[in-house]
Amino acid sequence: MERRAFFKLAGLSATAFAAGGMLGACSSVEHISNTLVPSADSDGASQVSTVVAQPPVSFSNSVDVLVVGSGVSGLSAAMAPAEAGYKVMVVDKLSLLGGESYDADGIMHVAGSKLQKKAGFAQSAEDAWPARKKELSAAGVGNLDFAKSLYLAAPRWVDRLSDSYGAQFADPSTYGKEGVNDAVMLPKNGLGDMQSVMVPLRDGLSSKGAAFQTGYRAVAFILDESAVVCGMRFFVEESGSVIDVRAGVVVVATGGFASSQPLVSAHAPALLRVGCFTYASMGEGQELCRRAGGQLSGMDGTLPLTSDLPQVSAWGMFAPTLIVDAQGRRFAREDDVNAPANACFSQDRGYWWTVFDKRISDGSQSRSAAQMTSKYAKRLVGPCDDAAELAAAIGVPADVLQATMERFDKLVSAGKDDDFGRTVNLKSLQAPYYAIKQLPVRYRTRGGVLTDENGRLTGTSGVSIRNVYCCGSVAANGGEGLASNGAFGMLVGEAVVSALEAAR
C-alpha cells in the first residue's frame, strides 16, 4: 500500500492546470515547498511551487523508464532501455506520436554511416567535423565539444535505426557525390518524408514492448519521501483527469520553446512578432525542470529562422535556385536553409521568392516539388519564358530582375559566388522559370535545461538531480537538427540503461 502523504509534486504551477481547465473547479490553493529548489534565490526571495488543490498521488502505472515527448529524440532515447528489456512508456501531449519531428524537412547532418559508405562517400564523421564545426560556430553554437560528440554519434544512430528498426533512408548517391551533400542524409522519399524514419522506429519500439500514450500533458514531477523524483503527473486532455505514473527514470524530451510567445518575449524579444512554423514547442519541459530545481542556460542565444515552407528553403541544396526579394534583388545564399529567412528578417525585406526551373521536379526532390507546388499553388507563379515575364508575375521591376539574373550568371561562369558564398548547385537557371513566395518564421530554439555529459538534469547547486534526464531541443546543448537530436536521445538512452544496471 502506497503511503500517499509522503509523495509531493515538484515543478507544478497554477497555470499548468489553468490551461487544462481545472483551475476554476478548485476552491483553494496550497503551497508545497519544492525540496529540489534552494529555499532562497540570490535576492533572498522564497522559491516555492504553487500547486492548485491537487488530488493525492495515486499511481496508475509503473515503468522503469518514462519518456516524455515522442519526437526523434524521445523515441531514440527509448531504444536502449527497450532493447535491454526494461519496461518503457513514451507519452506525448499531442494526439499523434512523432511530435514536430514528423513534420520536419528531413535533412540530417551525418557523415560516415554505412549507407553513405555504400554510396561511395569515404569521409568519416571525424573527417567531416571541421566543416560542420565551422557551420555551427557561425550559427552561434557555444558548446562545440558537446556538439562534436553528437556529430560523431550520428552515423551510429543512423546505422542503428536502419539495421535494428528498418528505418528507410534515401540512397545518398541520388542527391550527392563526393564533396557535394556527402555529409547529408534524407529519408527514403527525400525532403518532408520523416514518416519513413519515424514510423518504423515507433513500430520497432512497440515490438520490443514499449507502451505509448497520447494526449498526456506532463504537469509535475512526483517526489518520494526522500525528495527523489519517482514519477510524473499528467493532465489527460480528453478526460480532464490527472494520471500519475511511477518511473525509475524520467527522460524529458519535450522540444524547444519557439511556439511560446511568453518565452520568446523573455529570451528573444526581437523575434516576438515573427510568425512560427511550429505549434507545440511551448517550452513546458524547460519550465517543469526549472521549477523542479534544474538550471536553464543559453536561452538568450541566437534563434535561427527558416522559411514558412521549410522544404522549399532546402531546394537550393539539391537543384539550381535563385532567391530574390520584393524588389527583385538577390540577398542571401540559396544552399543554406536558414540564410534567406535570417537575412529577410534582419534586413526588413518582408518576404522573398525562390526562383527555380524544371530541374527540381525532374531531380532527386521531385516528390517535394510536387507536394509544395500543389499544396501552395496560390503562391506559385510560372511557367515564365523569360526574365521580363517572371518579373511581371512576381511584381518586381523587370530591369532589376534582369540585372540580378545576369549578375548571378557571371558568378556561375566564374565558378565562385563572391556575393554570398553559395557553393552547392551554383548553376544558372534555364527557362521556363517558376517562383514560389515565402516568409521568415521561427521554428527551433537554442538553449534550455542544463545537463551533464550523460544528459542528467543539473540542479541549481550544480549537482545532477537523480532519476531525471533530458535530451534534444529541451536541453541547453541540443536542438541542432534531426540527427543531432536523435543521437542525443540515443546516448541518453544508453546512459539510462547503464544507470539502471548499476543500481541493480
Short description:
The chain has helices at residues 14-18, 72-83, 114-118, 125-139, 144-165, 195-207, 261-267, 284-291, 310-313, 339-346, 358-362, 366-375, 387-394, 398-414, 482-503, and strands at residues 8-10, 29-32, 49-52, 59-68, 88-92, 108-109, 184-185, 211-214, 216-223, 229-236, 241-252, 275-276, 296-297, 305-307, 321-325, 352-356, 380-384, 433-438, 440-442, 448-449, 456-458, 464-470. It has 504 residues and is an alpha+beta fold.
Task: Give an account of the 3D structure.
The chain has about 500 residues and is α+β, with helices and mostly antiparallel strands. It has 2 domains: about 300 residues, 3-Layer(bba) Sandwich (FAD/NAD(P)-binding domain); about 140 residues, Succinate dehydrogenase/fumarate reductase flavoprotein, catalytic domain (Flavocytochrome C3, Chain A, domain 1, Alpha-Beta Complex), CATH 3.90.700. Helices cover about 30% and strands about 20% of the residues. It is built from 15 helices and 22 strands. The strands form 6 sheets. Strands 1, 4, 5, 8, 9, 10, 11, 21 and 22 form a 9-stranded mixed beta sheet that branches. Strands 15-16-18-17 form a 4-stranded antiparallel beta sheet. A hairpin with a 4-residue loop joins strand 10 and strand 11. Helix 4 crosses helix 5, helix 5 crosses helix 6 and helix 5 crosses helix 15. The longest helix has 22 residues. The radius of gyration is 24 Å and the shape is elongated. The two termini are about 25 Å apart. The N terminus is likely disordered.
